[in-house]
Amino acid sequence: MPSGAMWRSCLCLRDGWRRLLNRPSGGPTASVGKRANIPFPFRAYAPPAERKRFYQNVTITQGEGGFEINLDHRKLKTPQAKLFTVPSEALAIAVATEWDSQQDTIKFYTMHLTTLCNTSLDNPTQRNKDQLIRAAVKFLDTDTICYRVEEPETLVELQKNEWDPILEWAEKRYGVEIGSSTSIMGPSIPARTREVLVSHLASYNMWALQGIEFVVTQLKSVMLTLGLMDLRLTVEQAVLLSRLEEEYQIQKWGHVEWAHDYELRELRARTAAGALFIHLCSESTTVKHKLLQE
Fold it and tell me: Which among 230, 243, 227, 222 has a CA at the least distance from the CA of 279?
């Protein structure tokens, strides 16, 4: 995405993200100033109870360590009581929008960007860059689009038509071999493929890597995450491809409207937040204000 378009998207966060983040979502997220248990390595904090909104205004200030979020005159802190400071102004705008979008009640479970920032700042599992990269690449062993069924024929064809182009793109883009398999053991991923992808991910900073692992975990796929990061796929496409078999079964047998719609919207919201987080953590530190004024 061109940088100008990215900054314009930040301008639209108040409206677009208000709609997105107010969708139901049930995953773990971060609290403010409170420790919580660590249920999964990729999400460091469990969801706190909803809380009555205690602030009127949300502002951003630039400090020595980066950009800070202010709730009225109170500086936002992480669950480990560290000053909430993010490396880019665009990311600060996005986080501030999450807080400003809350209504009478603060729904922490909708605030995925805040959660990812808290995880990056506190690093509660104490993982280094290499460990984050290895955790993401490990999903190659169980990558959603590498596992194929042998029947029914219609689903076999659907997987081939929808997933093969992504694998072919990834193999050409990174100069590697990936392949697919109908075996319960999955495809045999060459060691060189892992090495190439590890080297590629090493070009990202620690913040972006937190987002990458988060998206990989949501989609259960390294390949779909790479396609999303490279703008080969949209969020909607990546989510539907990750749910290809579920969507096939829904089309065949029908669906429970509230349950399936809830799950789909939740996954879209979390994937969209993760993708935006990766891009904003990989961009320059300040917003081009003349573009924001357009």
Answer: 230
109: left (phi over 0), alpha (psi -120 to 50) or beta: alpha
This model's pTM is above 0.85: no
Tokens 């860059």 found at: 129
Determine whether 169 is exposed, middle or buried from the number of CB atoms within 10 Å of its CB (0-12, 13-18, 19+). Answer: middle
SS3 193: helix
Cβ–Cβ under 8 Å, residues 23 and 111 = no
* Beta bridge pairs of residue 63: 66
Residue 157: HSE in the Cβ half-sphere, 13 Å Cα cutoff? 3
151 vs 96: CA distance, rounded Å: 48
Task: Give 224-275 pLDDT, tens digit per residue.
Answer: 999 999 999 999 999 999 999 988 888 877 766 666 778 899 999 999 999 9
Q: Which region holds residue 24: left if phi is over 0, alpha if psi is between -120 and 50, else beta?
A: beta
pLDDT in tens, 198-222: 999 999 999 999 999 999 999 999 9
Maximum alpha-carbon separation in the chain: 62
Q: How many CB atoms lie within 10 A of CB 124?
A: 17
CB 115 within 8 A of CB 29: yes
Q: What is the DSSP letter of 229?
A: H
- 80 CB-side CA count, 13 A: 16
To the nearest 10 degrees (0 to 180), the angle between helices 257-282 and 112-122 is 50
Q: Which residues pair with 66 in a beta bridge?
A: 63
In angstroms, the Cα distances linking 63 to 69, 107, 122, 286, 290 are 10, 27, 18, 13, 22
SS3 of 97-160: the string is HHHHHCCCEECHHHCHHHHHHHHHHHCCCCCCHHHHHHHHHHHHHHCHHHECCCCCHHHHHHHH
